[in-house]
């Protein structure tokens, strides 16, 4: 187990290698996908839905589809015009939820301001919610019940486990409270007996809270927002931020001289998100095909 407070800070932090761990998880997922195909004659299938043509979303989805193909997961892509209404999007997703050939559904965020994104997410059947975006999945994460995790928070927990970080009784500070990242990662940390504090844009004297963190999760979306001088010596630092220029939310160079473990950007949290998405898609397929 990594003891977060006892390490002398004579050396820079160990890096938490998300690329290597994601590679291992994806190799296991590929084997599991091949097993599903061999036993049922059906390959796991992820449906992706994109509204509009936002270039970043197009790139993300292409990347996810390429990774699916490599892992033996079929993908079915539905591209809808930016003018799509909430009712049309809900109808499309409901169709995919009812289609037995589709095992997982990913609605690419954002969908455009005129669409009720929550209504669209809720049209995803819970057993196909491999991106962990429905209220059902959120509640399951909150109650510690089986269900699909939001992919980035799920990936963060896998990283903490791979590096044997002992969370029990540790003070985990999560900076950010978004529905896909900050909030669920805090719930997952709480489920592992950490004492969790959330920080957000209204938090007063944020550095003083950050300085108490044995485990710090930065999910802010502001480049180098967390300064090394505010990192508690020996802390485990998870930088979920991904800002233009491949820069995280933590000032890596200063933080790595105080942390015991730290995720690099890129190559830390980022690769874990897709790895968890693929893994959860194969798990969904295995369950729906009666293998588990
Ligand atoms: P988001 O929805 O914009 O949420 C940002 C959060 O940070 C909000 O809760 C906001 O507080 C808080 N915040 C903003 N400015 C702050 C300040 N000055 N002080 C304290 N808190 C502040 O962002 P997100 O979707 O969670 O993403 C966060 C970061 O993670 C981004 O860099 C994103 O690119 C990255 N990300 C990476 C992955 C991955 O796969 N690696 C996946 C998703 C996101 P309020 O709630 O008060 O507004």
TrEMBL record:
The protein's name in its UniProt record: Bifunctional protein FolD
Limits of the Tetrahydrofolate dehydrogenase/cyclohydrolase catalytic domain: 16-131
HAMAP family xref list: THF_DHG_CYH
Superkingdom of this protein's organism: Bacteria
GO MF annotations in UniProt: methenyltetrahydrofolate cyclohydrolase activity; methylenetetrahydrofolate dehydrogenase (NADP+) activity
Record pathway: One-carbon metabolism; tetrahydrofolate interconversion
Organism: Streptacidiphilus fuscans
Binding site for NADP(+): 176-178
Function as written in the Swiss-Prot or TrEMBL entry: Catalyzes the oxidation of 5,10-methylenetetrahydrofolate to 5,10-methenyltetrahydrofolate and then the hydrolysis of 5,10-methenyltetrahydrofolate to 10-formyltetrahydrofolate.
Reactions accelerated catalytically: (6R)-5,10-methylene-5,6,7,8-tetrahydrofolate + NADP(+) = (6R)-5,10-methenyltetrahydrofolate + NADPH; (6R)-5,10-methenyltetrahydrofolate + H2O = (6R)-10-formyltetrahydrofolate + H(+)
Keywords: Amino-acid biosynthesis, Histidine biosynthesis, Hydrolase, Methionine biosynthesis, Multifunctional enzyme, NADP, One-carbon metabolism, Oxidoreductase, Purine biosynthesis
Gene Ontology annotations for the cellular component aspect, listed alphabetically: cytosol
The gene coding this protein: folD
Family to which this protein belongs: Belongs to the tetrahydrofolate dehydrogenase/cyclohydrolase family.
UniProt domain Tetrahydrofolate dehydrogenase/cyclohydrolase NAD(P)-binding: residue ranges: 150-288
Subunit structure: Homodimer.
